[in-house]
Amino acid sequence: MLALALDTATDAASAALVRDGDVLDKRLTTAATVLGAFEKLLEGAGETPAAVTRIVVGRGPGRYTSLRMGLVTARALAFSLAAELIGVGTLDALAAGAPGALPIVDARRREVFTLGGEPVCVRPDELSIAPGRLCVGDGAVRYRELLESAGGVVPPDADPRHVPWASAHAALADSQGGPAEPIYLRLPDADQAIVRPGG
Hints:
By secondary structure, the protein is an alpha/beta fold. The protein folds into two domains: 2-91 and 163-192, Nucleotidyltransferase, domain 5 (2-Layer Sandwich), CATH 3.30.420.40; 99-160, ATPase, nucleotide binding domain (Nucleotidyltransferase, domain 5). It is 33% helix and 26% strand. It contains seven helices and nine strands; from the N terminus they run E-E-E-H-E-H-E-H-E-E-E-E-H-H-H-H.
């Protein structure tokens, strides 16, 4: 099985090419350039798009616009290639890349997305951090001072464990995969402005 995987839910978007569980290549990209990244991955592996039988995509939660771009791209690829389409939670993939760590994605507006059994959106100061708990993700980087003062451990900013690598999505597809539907947890900014009382 040859799988293309992508996650565009955070600023650290990534793409990977995986054959029967073996990562052939992976790279950082952006939501806008993920198709170009796929072309380079396939070219580097000497494969053609027709060989792809599975598309795995990050479901979020994360940045609304870039998350939507990734999901639309994945659906279009799956349709055009007649490939299986599977969605995997971005937080689950982030946690898989750093076993035992608490995955934290920056949700902006002084909030973060994290796992509390299920994905949740909370303020950083509402997180319960056990002493010595490893915290990863762009939310952990942004709120490093707060998390470390609570006893958490945050790797250096450039540590690869802060990236929800698409290769982790591919590895989780069989055990934790599901429909390629977005996990939002809250309304996008524009919708919140519409429903805000007195707005």
